[in-house]
Amino acid sequence: MRITKRTNLAMRVLMYCGVNADRLVTKAEISGRCNTSENHLAQVINQLGQLGYLHTQRGRNGGLMLARPMSEIVVGQVFRDVEAGVPVAECFADVDNSCPLVDACRLRLALGDAVEAFYSHLDGITLDSLVCGNGALETMLTSFSCRTPAES
Fold first, then answer.
1. What is the DSSP string of the chain?
2. What does the alpha-carbon distance between residue 77 and residue 96 come to, in Å, rounded to a whole number?
3. pLDDT at position 1, please?
4. Can you tell me the distance from the alpha carbon of 54 to that of 13, in angstroms, rounded to the nearest whole number?
5. Which CATH class is domain 5-146?
6. Domain edges within the chain
7. What per-residue confidence (pLDDT) applies to 84?
8. Residue 101 has what pLDDT?
9. Which residues are CB-neighbours of 149 under 8 A, at least 6 positions away?
10. What phi and psi values does residue 57 have, to the nearest 5 degrees?
11. Digit-coded pLDDT (tens) for 106-122
């Protein structure tokens, strides 16, 4: 199974916000630390905001932060929400499905079961289990530019 770039970015954004939960973060910060363009991030941030994972604040002092506790953000649900509508294979698509085997294919059933097992496994993982106590991640995602030398 391969996750989409959008889901990968969504998880990066959520982890970045989790590591920096004590303040608003900016799209530019995330872009710099997570090696992605601000344009791609804008779309992902908008979607995560609409889904209720992020609180966004516009304006000069704006930014974003988690909209709920990390313990309530379940990775499997994030994947389902962000990848909603993205078929795992052509035969799962409502439109543009040209596979002639759809009505007799057992592979489709096996793939459906595998995808559900994948999501079910991720349902046991919360954002806090990815972030809390992960010193290496914190070092990578903490923005030192906003801190005074005494805080670093």
1. ----HHHHHHHHHHHHHHHTTTS-B-HHHHHHHHT--HHHHHHHHHHHHHTTSEEEE-STT-EEEESS-GGG-BHHHHHHHHTTT--SSGGG-SSS---TTTTT-HHHHHHHHHHHHHHHHHTT-BHHHHHTT-HHHHHHH--GGGS-TTT-
2. 26
3. 66
4. 9
5. mainly alpha
6. 5-146
7. 82
8. 75
9. none
10. -130, 120
11. 888 888 899 899 999 99
Q: Which residues of the chain have pLDDT under 70?
A: 1, 87-95, 143-152
* Token pair of 88 as six digits: 């795992």
As given in the structure block, the two tokens for residue 45 are 């941030």
Give the pair of three-digit tokens for residue 70.
């990390």
| pLDDT value of residue 87 | 64
64 has which bridge partners? 25, 56
- The token pair that represents 98 in the structure block: 């040209």
Cα–chain-centroid distance for residue 138? 17
Nearest CA to 108 among 94, 124, 130, 89?
A: 89
The token duo for 136 is 């290496």
**Structure token pair of residue 14:** 């959520």
